[in-house]
Amino acid sequence: MNSGALRTTVAVLAVVLTLGAFGWYLVSSGDTDDRASDEPAGTPTPVETLSVEPSRDVPAPRSEPTTEPTVEVTACDDESTLGDPEGTGETLLPDCGEPPVTHQQQRRQGLSLGCGGKFPVILYKSTTAGGKVSVCGRNAVGDDFRVVIKPDGADLLDLPGDYDWRQDAYVADHDGTTYEIHAVDGSLHVTRGGATQVHESSDWMSLENETDDL
């Protein structure tokens, strides 16, 4: 083979190889595109949806009506009946609706259960079935006092009194009858003709229990 024919053959082979390479590239590109188009599209990520419940009116808690306790005011609780013998605004024991007497009234008719006059301080009070009793002191010390007794169904008695420390009792005598007011429980002991009758107290007050009011 001469050199001209050899060059021609080489050139033809080069063209054939070039065309073959180009054709292989086209075929490969087509397969890739086909596979890409055959694959399913990506599934979108679901978005969580928040559900909002409709608002509901919540009823306010019911408040129970408050009822203030009713306190029955008696004469003993009425501030207008509190004793103020020295006019200082400080009170001792209440007079419980029994007005104290003036000095002139004391001279004419004696003391009342509300005391007054020269013995304005109520040292002790007791209410029993046998009567009501007040111990009226010249002052809060109680070293000088009188015993005022209103026996049930009888007239008021204003009597000089003594203190029996052994029995813790206020003692007074009148027409053969001895009256003892026992401070420990407010009972009234009435002794007449050697016989003693005891009247239990339903309500009693002592100035010793009212020291905060002095």
Sheet with the most strands, sense and barrel status: 5 strands, antiparallel
What is the residue-mean pLDDT, rounded to a whole number? 74
Side-by-side strand order of the widest sheet: 4-3-2-1-10
What is the number of helical segments per DSSP (H or I, 4+ residues)?
A: 2
> Helices and strands: which structural class?
alpha+beta
Order of helices and strands: HHEEEEEEEEEE
How many domains in all? Answer: 2
Please tell me what the overall shape is: rod-shaped
What percent of residues are in strands? Answer: 25-35%
How are the SSEs placed, and which strands pair?
Blueprint: H1 3-38, H2 103-109, E1 121-128, E2 131-137, E3 145-151, E4 157-160, E5 162-164, E6 169-174, E7 177-182, E8 188-192, E9 195-199, E10 201-206
Antiparallel strand pairs: 1-2, 1-10, 2-3, 3-4, 5-6, 6-7, 7-8, 8-9
What does this structure look like?
The structure is a single chain. Strand 6 (169-174) and strand 7 (177-182) form a beta hairpin. The longest helix is centred in the first third of the chain and has 36 residues, at 3-38. Helix content is 20%, strand content 27%. The chain is built from two helices and ten strands. A five-stranded antiparallel sheet has the order 4-3-2-1-10, with no helix packed on it. Strands 5-6-7-8-9 form a five-stranded antiparallel sheet, with no helix packed on it. With 214 residues, the protein is of the alpha+beta class. The chain folds into two domains: 1-32; 89-213, no CATH class. Residues 67-75, 77-85, 87-91 and 209-214 have low confidence and may be disordered. The protein is rod-shaped and about 180 Å long.
